[in-house]
Fold this protein.
Amino acid sequence: MTSGDLEEGVHEITSAETAYTDAPTVKRPGDEDLRVEKDAHSSLAGSPALSAMDVKGTAIDIPYAEHESLPIAVPRLKRRGLFGQLTLLAEVENPKTYLRKTKWFITFIVALAGSTAPMGSSILFPSLSQISKEMDAPTTVVNLNISLYMLSMSIFPLWWSSFSERLGRRTIYLVSFSLFVLFNVLSAVSHSISMLIVMRMLSGGASASVQAVGAGTIADLWDPHERGRAMGIFYLGPLCGPLLAPIVGGALAERWRWRSTMWLLAVYGGIIVIFIFFALPETLANRKQPDGDEQAPVEQQLSRISSRQVVHFTARWLKVLKMVFLDPLKIVLYLRYPAVLLTVYYASITFGSLYVLNVSVEHTFSTNPYNFSTIIVGCLYIPNSLGYIAASIFGGRWMDQIMQREAKKAGRYDEHGELIYRPEDRMRENAWLGAFLYPAALIWYGWTADKGVFWFAPMAANFFFGVGSMLIFSMATTMLTEFMPNKSSTGVALNNFMRNIFSCIGSLVTAPIIDAIGNGWLFTILGLVAFASSSVILAMKVFGPRWRKSMDAVSH
């Protein structure tokens, strides 16, 4: 993809001496002039086009964005984020005005980045025994590579989310993924089990940034009536990563031992860094700093300068300490809102079930009566992936259509005649389908695996689990970004915090419980809990509007 393709729909004029006609001009203090005029010779069928004049006076065709206004490029020297001036894709004043294919390109990058954290959690599954033998460590200690990795994935997003609301999305992406590459290199060269566990935990925390900040980026780009489909595509990365990773991890471990999996993660992280560096502009809304943050005039500083410097220095450090230690923990306080609490709980139960299922597949099909090889066991995660893909492609679009239908049915229009959307509208028949499919699939899988039925039967159950759970994941994440529109990454960070705690616990206790009571009863209990948890959908339908209004009143 060339820089010209990436910059479509936005064009920046860097000279103030461009010749003008009476075409409309957009000018802001300190910005360059941008001239656009109608192109009478547009070849776009049924679609108008604009042409911008570059510094040489050459007309460049720019097709209209679907949004009401054209994207206005931020001058290169004023682009935000770490090394923001070097991006090939220009930052614009309103990210929602990007052309659709530009939005999908950014969504693809974020989804690609989102696959790294969960992929890293499961790529070591096939090679845990190798690590145990090479480092002469007991299995319980080696398993900490997985459980502490998951724990760091639940905690670190609280900080990444808080920092992203202040520093922007791009800076957090670049810093966190650079650390991810570093910690995976150190994992690959670890000479002791303690070093490996620590480096793995830090790499998990570094890569977890995109789980919260990524959903915020999606909310920055897409309008509510399109966001469900975009969120479904975004979730393909985090969900398909851990399902494909065991296959790749098993093949690499058999050929080049377990360290090769860490080198693979480091290379993959490096590719993500390159994509972000050159093709991911800042998308966070540009918020004006409060007056209290502005530095005092020079005349005032001249008086009692020593005292003022001390006070200013102390205040600045107190503000930094508050941002680092207190602000991230304040995210948990959003659980006091019933709409947020119930949405997060339902997503967490579903995500915990996913990891219980993942551990069961490896534990069950590598032993009697199946006795499958490591690579074959890895391939058994494919049915889930197919279910996720199907639900992502069709479920997100279906959810957006439901939301529009409910808004039209209620007659909610603003003064411009545009539909007004409500987050709780997303929980309709799509939610009930997911609420039935994935618990039923858990029970189906549990008893077929417990009785040693031909492998196709439990794998068919896993496909339907993938469809049902994906409907819940994308719905919950999208709703959280809309319940907290000005803190979209905060809501998703809270969701990740809770769901990864559930998945951490699930991955630790699954194998002992299977040994004690078997797959059948374990997944029957889990399925019944999931069925009971679907009461969240009914509660949101009845009380959702009232809860949302109370949240809006507090935020305003």
